[in-house]
Amino acid sequence: MSKFIGRRIVPKHDGVWDINKEYEELSIVLDKASGESYISRRPVPVGTAISDEIYWMQYSLYSAQIAEAVKEMEDTEARLIQYVDTAESNMNSRVNSAESLTNSNKAELNSRMDTLDKRLDANVSASTDKDKDYAAEVVDARVDEEGTKYGSVGSHIRAIGSGKGILKGAVNGSRLSFLDITPELVWTADKYISRKYGGLDNFSQGSNVYFATLDYIPFPYGGCWLQVYSAMSTVESDKSGIAFYDANKKFISGSDYNRETKKLAFRRIFCPDGTAYIRMSCMGQDNLNGVGIWLDDYRISVGHLVDRAVTHEKLAEKSVETDNLADEAITSEKLCDNAVQVKNAAFLEIPLEIVLTPDLYIARAKGDLRTYTPGTNTYFATEDYLPFPYGGSKCLLRASMSTASTDVSGLAFYDQDKKYISGLKYNQEKGGILSYTDFICPKGTAYIRLTMYKENLKDFAKIWFMDTVVSTGKVQDAAITTQKIADEAITKDKLEKDIQKRLTAGINDLLGLNLSDNPLERIRNDAGLMTVFRHVGCIGDSLASGEAVYKKADGTTGGKDLFEYSWGQYLARMTGNTYYNWSKGGLRCDTFLSSSLATECFDGNHKCEAYIIGLGQNENNRKYKIGTVEDINLGDYTQNPDTYYGNYGKIIQKIQEMQPKAKIFILTDPLKSVENAGYNSAVREIAGIFKSVYLVDLYTYGTALYNSGFLYQQKRGGHYNAVGYFICAMIISTYIDWIMKKNPNEFREIEFIGLDNKFY
C-alpha cells in the first residue's frame, strides 16, 4: 500500500498492469501495450480497464520516459570515459615505475652473483686443504669429543643416529629423541587387537586384510611420546591400531594410527604411564615389514631403564651418568623392592607376588605349613616365604577368613633365617568377605606367609603401609648411602614432590591429571563429569531399577522396584538432570526390546546424550544363548539373530540410529558366575566394535568393592538397600568420570549431541 511519510504520501509502484488484479489507491502501473504509466484515483476492483478514467489517471507519457533515460545514459557515458582516461594514466605511471625498479634489481642481482661465483671458486680450491677456513669446519666435524676421526661427516652423523656415536655422558634426552625402539614383530593373518579392550579377535570378512602380533611384546616406555609408523584405512571400522598393557598384562588403553592415508604413515602417540607390554594390528601384508616405533621424547625416566631397555648396544659405554638422570635418580636398585618410590609412604601398596596353593594353611601359632583335610578349596596358603623387610612399620592387610573359632586363616612373620617370630589373626566380623586388619610388623621381620579363606576371595589379598612418613624400617640397610646422595640425586625437594601431589589432588582430579590406571582406585563422592549429560537413559535389570528384597508374612521373600532409590535416580538428584529408568526386575536384552520400556526409549521424544546399559545377569540365570560377535549385523540390525550378542547389539544400533552422537556406557557384571559364563566377555567385545561405546568393566576393577566390606553388608537377596544403591551410583559415576578424562578428545562436543552443529 502507499506509505505516509511526515506530511507526504508516497505512491506505490506496482509493476505492469494486470486486469485480473485489484489495486490500492495511488498505485502506479505500466501499461505494457502503450508504454505509458497510470496512477489509481481510488481502490481498483478486478476487471477494471486501464482506460476507465473513474479509476485511472495518466501518470507519464512514454516519450518523456525515453528522453529522461537517454539523458541519464549520456551522463553515464561521460563519467565512464573520464574514469577510463584516469585509470590509463595511473597504469602508465605504475608500469614506468616497475620497469625502473626491475632494472635496478637486475644490476644488484648481477653484482651478488659475481660475489657468489668468487666464494664458490674459493671453496672448491680450499676443499682439500685443511688449513683453509672453508675446509677446516668440515674436517673438524669428522672428529668426535674423544678424538675419534670418521671417514666423512656423513659417517659421523650416521653413527650418532644409530647410537654408536653418542658421546660419554651425553644422555640428556635430546640424543634419545627419534631413537629407533622397534621391537621384534611377528604377525599372524586374519587377527586383530581391539583398541577398545585389548583382546585378540578373529577377522572373518576377508583374508590377509589384517595382521596382529599375538604375543605381548615387552615395551617399558610408559610416559613417553612415540612416533609410530604403521598403516590403516580411513574407514571408521578399520581394526588397525596399538594396545598398551601393564605389568600384569591388563589392558590400559589403545590408539589408532594415522587415518589420513591407507599407506604407511607416522602418527605421534603417547605411551600411557605403567605400560609394560604392547600388541599391534596392521592393515595390508605389504605394509608389515615397514612398521616401526621411535622415541619422540626429551627425557629418560626410570621406566625406560628397567629390564635393560637402554643397553650398551644402544648407547655408548658409561653414557648414562647420575647427573644426567638426577630428576629420576631414585630407582629400584637403590631401594628395597620399590618400597620407597619417591613417595610419601602413607597407604603405599607393598608389592608382593602372592601365589596360593589350595588345601594348605600356615599355623599362626608356630608358622609351619600344614595340610587341611576336612574339605577341598576351603583354605589357600603361600608355600614360599615372601620377602617383607618392613619390621617396625604400621601396615594394613586386606584378607578373608570365616567367623568360626576353628578358622585357620592368618599371617605369620619370620626373621632373616626364616625362623618364626609371631602370627596374626585377621579381623573378621562377618564370614566369607574381605576385611581389613591393621598391624605393626614385628621388628626383625624379613619374610611373611599367609592363609586365605574361600576361593573367590583368595586373589584379593593386599598389604599397604599405614605410616605417614618414610622410615628407615622401609629402606634396606645401606640402600641409600652417602656416595649415592653426594651428587644430590636424592634431595628433600624430590621426596616432597608426592606431598605436593597430595595437596593438589583435588585440582588434579578435576583436570584429569595423574590419572591412575585403575578407574576405581579412589571412589568419588559426587557425580564428577557425569554432570554434563542433561539427559541419561538407564537400561537394566533389577539392579538398575532399585529393587529391594523384603520378607512376606509367610516368611518367603519378594522384590519391589523402588525407582527413587535406584543408582540412576541418585545421580539424577545429584546432578539436577533427567535420568530415564528403562529398567525392571528380571529384564533381559530380548525382553527389553519387546517391552513398553523400549517403545518409550526409541519413540524419539526421550532422546538422551548418554545411555548406561547393564544387562546380562538374567541371561546367565536362564542360560540364554550367548552367540558370537558375528551375530551383530552392522549394516542391518533387523538381521541380528536372537542371541545375547545379537540383541545387545540391536539395542546399541537402535540408539545410534535415533541419536547418532550419543555416548553409550556398557557395564560388565561383578558376579563371578556371569564372568565365567562368558557374558562379560561378550560385553567387552561389543564395546570394541562400535564408535562412542565405552566399557565400564565392573568385574575387572570392581569385584573387590562389590564383594567385601561396607558395600557387601548393604546386600540382601542378591540386591541392595538404599545405601548400597547410592554406593553403586558413586562407583558407576567414578568409572565414567575416569573414562571421560582418559579420552578427552571424544567428549569435547557433548553440547552438540542431538544437533547438526560441530566444531571438530
TrEMBL record:
Membrane keyword on record: yes
Q: Which GO terms describe its molecular function?
A: hydrolase activity
Q: Looking at its record, which EC class is this enzyme?
A: hydrolase
State the coiled-coil residue ranges: 59-86
Which residue ranges run through the membrane?
722-740
Question: Which PROSITE patterns does this UniProt record tie to the protein?
Answer: LRR
Alphabetical keyword list? Coiled coil, Hydrolase, Membrane, Transmembrane, Transmembrane helix
Which EC number(s) does UniProt give? 3.1.-.-
Which InterPro entries did the record assign?
Answer: Leu-rich_rpt, SGNH_hydro_sf
Q: Output this protein's name.
A: SGNH/GDSL hydrolase family protein
Q: What is the lineage of its organism?
A: Bacteria, Bacillati, Bacillota, Clostridia, Eubacteriales
